[in-house]
Amino acid sequence: MIVFRYDKTYEGLLTAVFDAYFRKTFPDKLLGTDDIEPMFAEESFTVITQSDKAARVWKSLEKKLSANACNMLTYVWLSEEEGSDELLFQYIRKTVDSKRTIETNFADEVVLKVHKLAMKVSKERLRMIQFVRFQKAADDVFFAPVSPDHNCLPLAIDHFQDRFADQKWILYDTKRDYGFYYDLKTVTEMTLETSALFPEGKLDEALMAEDEKLFQQLWKTYFKSMAIKERINPKLHRQLMPKRYWKYMTEKQ
What we know:
By secondary structure, this protein is of the alpha/beta class. The protein has eight helices and eight strands; from the N terminus they run βαββααααββαβββαα.
């Protein structure tokens, strides 16, 4: 068994692909720098992430794959599912070795798995866009905590920057402890020092704008008045609006 160790970054994975072709040895297992090595490993190689090597691999992929397929690879990486990096490595290797594009060859198990996983991340991105609820803070910044199953926050930023271009906002992933701040001009990645600002998925009341509570109450009243009791279907409701988002939604409090 050949083991490659890398820093668990996307750039590091692409560097690992470059090094594998340069060395003419391909890993059976990809590990992080601190992961325990398998008992029967015959060879272990540590990948040093280099942006120029990663860029060369990516340019090669852009020549052989459509823009949609390249985006799909990024979606799979952001899925954060166990083994997704090894799946990507296999897909990239098949792409490089094949004379024809493989992106529609769903008879290939690797291609099919990549496609399905990318679709899961895409659906999670759409749900996050649908179910985000901003809360206005006293400093007029709109704040929205989220905790998606997959790391899809970077995939949705363009939508929010376009949709809410006239207001300052923060989108924060509480599960991964990072977010993005929009200041009416640019979007900047950020990290908060404490999660005490949003207990139970809501902005601390002491930090809310004076009219925020009123708006929340009005929204709850509207939501309740529009509901048709005779047509309530809890099972369908949970399918269309996953319960993990409820704690962030004003109308579900």
